[in-house]
Design brief:
This protein has about 550 residues and is of the alpha+beta class. The radius of gyration is 36 Å and the shape is elongated. InterPro entries: 2-oxoA_DH_lipoyl-BS (IPR003016), 2-oxoacid_DH_actylTfrase (IPR001078), Biotin_lipoyl (IPR000089), CAT-like_dom_sf (IPR023213), E2/Pdx1 (IPR045257), E3-bd_dom_sf (IPR036625), LAT1 (IPR006257), PSBD (IPR004167).
Length: about 550
């Protein structure tokens, strides 16, 4: 019966996959463990393995095409099998397998009759189901069984190796007893909570327990989910299974020369530096699994590696680090919500562009020192920048603007917003009519507004109406950064710290104090040439600050 191959979820964030290349073509024979294709996910290019034996009857996705998770990418079945009905059903958005659906409908009456509760309380045995081994796991594949029917098992014994969507992991027993039944063959997949095995008292009526479990599952889910387990016969096939497994384990490569190994085995071999092609696989069809890597001893390679390392083959003991994962979740404050909303809207609606310029601050340092000898309040470099920005905006009024959708507002007044970091986020109090205020006035007003911001005493009138914004991280040692435009402005100036740097002056290399500023501009309003002209004017004012006072 034909089986549909769907695009698996190969990472926790994967939404679709791209078929990088098909390694088989329609009509090729494939076996469980063969690599069908290479799939590009959002994180890596991974191999898509077959979990069925048969002939590749149909390829539904071309190379380089992207398909969402669970989309049909291929069909595997018996050679010459008619899949036209199945293809039509897939095209019309039907179920995976029309033949399977017909079989289910023909048996539905019998199944419904069987869905009645069975009392298995007298059976001293436990059903082992497929556990959910990762947050994204929906099914697991039995890479290999470490026990066979009739073996005694103890709590903690490894019963099987299970391949999940992320790694190959060990399935441990949680009960003492005898392995009475194995419901999934090596290489086969089963959904989470599907029946894997039954462990219990030797001679217990496990078939009764199995029927009771299936009846309970059908009743809770609406019936039919456990049909594969119901149709499996108990231990008869298991008796001949070990010999068949040994025969299949003789070769770990397919006829096409591709290696059959679990993802975990490949990773372990790579980490240990083993040549995986020299390792004999003990899994289904010769598949190399975790235990093969653990039990492998590279006889010929060991002396050479030890000699190259210059040691005597002593093992390196890596200490085990024990830690505790922890985190804290807090509700988002209203301020942080507003910041997130406004800046996200600005970043993703306004086409930002950035211009960076270096400014020699030697004369500004001298001027500030001289002004602070007479100023009633201490003037900072940030105050000087605010004054210079307001003077530059007066010369370039188109930078002092806002985008209103179907209109552009050119503001004739200059209100400079000053970004202030507080515990809850970021506030932008406004210096109104900054171009008409003296440096000492600006300095006193900034200090007052910053104090109000930290004490949460700002009023709406203190933070509304900005036409341009400055953001200064220089005091934190930041040399250069870019800022997100603060709506409704069309520009914001990011100010870095002043740093001593070699500069050329009168043909000589001398030490100079350089400050980098970056203008973020909304390209819908401000063009590159206009932004550059604004920065050139700002540079002239700061490099000769006496012009600010004129």
């Amino acid at each position: 019966m034909a089986e549909v191959i769907r695009m698996p979820k190969m990472s926790d964030t994967m939404e679709e996959g791209v078929i990088a290349s098909w390694l088989v073509k329609e009509g090729d024979k494939v076996k469980s463990g063969d690599i069908l294709a290479e799939v590009e996910t959002d994180k890596a290019t991974m191999e898509l393995e077959s979990y069925e034996d048969g002939t590749l009857l149909h390829i539904g996705v071309k190379e380089k095409d992207a398909v969402p998770i669970d989309a049909v990418i291929a069909i595997i079945g018996e050679e010459g099998e008619d899949i036209s009905g199945l293809l039509k059903e897939i095209e019309s958005g039907g179920s995976d397998n029309g033949a399977a659906k017909e079989e289910e409908s023909s048996d539905s009456g019998a199944e419904e009759e069987e869905v009645e509760e069975i009392d298995a309380s007298d059976v001293n045995a436990t059903v082992v189901t497929m556990p959910k081994m990762s947050d994204t796991m929906t099914e697991g594949t039995i890479a290999s069984w470490q026990k066979k029917v009739g073996d005694s098992v103890s709590s903690g014994d490894v019963m099987a190796e299970v391949e999940t969507d992320k790694a190959t992991m060990e399935l441990e027993a949680y009960e003492d007893g005898t392995l009475l039944y194995i419901g999934v063959e090596e290489g086969d997949s089963v959904e989470v909570d599907g029946v894997l095995a039954i462990v219990g008292e030797k001679g217990a009526d496990f078939e009764k327990l199995l029927k009771a479990h299936q009846a309970k599952a059908k009743k809770s889910s609406g019936g039919g989910e456990e049909k594969k387990e119901a149709k499996k016969e108990a231990p008869k096939k298991e008796e001949s299974k070990p010999a068949a497994t040994q025969e299949k384990a003789t070769s770990s490569t397919t006829d096409g020369g591709r290696l059959k190994a679990s993802p975990l085995a490949k990773k372990m071999a790579e980490d240990k530096g083993y040549d995986i092609t020299k390792i004999k696989g003990s899994g289904d069809h010769g598949r190399i699994v975790k235990k093969d890597i653990e039990n492998y001893t590279p006889a010929a390679d060991a002396p050479a590696k030890q000699a190259a390392a210059g040691g005597e083959g002593t093992a390196v003991n890596i200490p085990q680090v024990v830690g505790e994962e922890s985190y804290e979740e807090v509700n988002v404050s209203q301020m942080r919500k507003t910041i997130g909303k406004r800046l996200a809207e600005s970043k993703f609606t306004a086409p930002h562009f950035y211009i960076t310029m270096e400014i020699n601050m030697d004369k500004a340092i001298e001027a500030r020192k001289a002004m602070n000898e007479f100023s009633p309040v201490k003037i900072s470099f940030n105050d000087i920048v605010i004054k210079a920005v307001s003077a530059a905006l007066r010369q370039h009024p188109k930078v002092n603007s806002s985008w209103l959708g179907d209109k552009i507002r050119y503001n004739k007044h200059i209100h400079v917003g000053v970004a202030v970091a507080v515990d809850e986020g970021l506030l932008v109090p406004v210096i109104r009519f900054a171009d008409n205020k003296s440096l000492s006035h600006i300095s006193a007003e900034v200090k007052d507004l910053v104090g109000k911001a930290h004490s949460k005493k700002l009023q709406p009138a203190d933070w509304e109406g900005n036409t341009f914004t400055v953001s200064n991280l220089g005091m934190f040692g930041v040399e250069e950064f870019t800022a997100i435009i603060n709506p409704p402005d069309s520009c914001i100036l990011a100010i870095g710290g002043i740093k001593q740097t070699p500069i050329v002056k009168d043909g000589q290399v001398v030490p100079g104090n350089v400050m980098k500023v970056t203008l973020s501009a909304d390209h819908r309003v401000v063009d590159g040439a206009l932004g550059a002209a604004f920065l050139q004017t700002l540079k002239g004012l700061l490099e000769n600050p006496v012009r600010i006072l004129v």
